[in-house]
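User: Here's a chain of 117 residues. Predict its fold as C-alpha cells.
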Amino acid sequence: MLEPSNNAELPEIPTKRYFTIGEVSELCAVKAHVLRYWEQEFRQLKPIKRRGNRRYYQRHDVIRIRQIRALLYEQGYTIGGARAHLSSDQAKEDASESRQLVRQLCSELEEILLVLK
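Assistant: Prediction complete.
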C-alpha cells in the first residue's frame, strides 16, 4: 500500500466517516481539481455524491488517493502505469480474499460434517 516514509509528510487521517473534497485535498496534499481528474482516470476512486453533486470520500478513498499520489509524484509512474499497478494490486487482493473465503467455507463444512456424524 503506502510506504511509511510517505505517510510521515502527510497529516494523519482523522477518524471520520466522510470527508469533503477540500478536506481530502489537505490530507493528501493534492488540489481539488486534480482529485476530480483522478476520479475519471482511476476506477477505484468512487466518492459518494450527494446534494448538489457534492463529493464525500471515505477513509479507504483517502488511503487510495495517497497511494496514487505516491505512485505518480514520488515513484515516477505515468497515469497509465499507476492505473495498471493499482489494477494488479486489486487483482491480488481479490484473489487473496477469494482464497480466504474458500478456506473459511471449508472449515465450516468440516464442522458441519462433524456435527452430522
